[in-house]
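Hi all, long-time lurker, first post. I run a small reading group and we've been trying to get comfortable going from sequence to structure in the token notation. Rather than ask abstract questions, I figured I'd post a concrete chain and ask someone more experienced to write out its structure so we can walk through it together at our next meeting. Sequence below, copied exactly:
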Amino acid sequence: MMLLEIGQALWGETTRVADAIALAPSPNPEPKTINTDGILDFFTTKIVPILLAALGVIFIGRASKGEVSRVLTSSAIAIIGLAFVAGAASLFFFGDSLVKLLFN
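-- Answer (accepted) --
Happy to help. Here is the structure in token form:
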């Protein structure tokens, strides 16, 4: 008799466990991706103009103090730096086609 009661108790618990497993939500298998286009768009539309405006204010402030030669030197360095950044950005966008052109 006691063995029968233990068997019935175990059977009741296993059915509850099976129901809980069946009703549990399944995990979301798709990985989360990062919106790199949105990040690049944010930097190019929000951050870069603010940095360029800050450079302009600094250069105007220096020029008003009579440090024109330093302003010209800093401006030339900034322009060369922007040219390097533009070159890196163009390689970022067109690098794949350049590699295919050179190695095919």
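A couple of things your group might point at:
Residues 68-103 form the longest helix (36 residues).
DSSP finds three helices and no strands in the chain.
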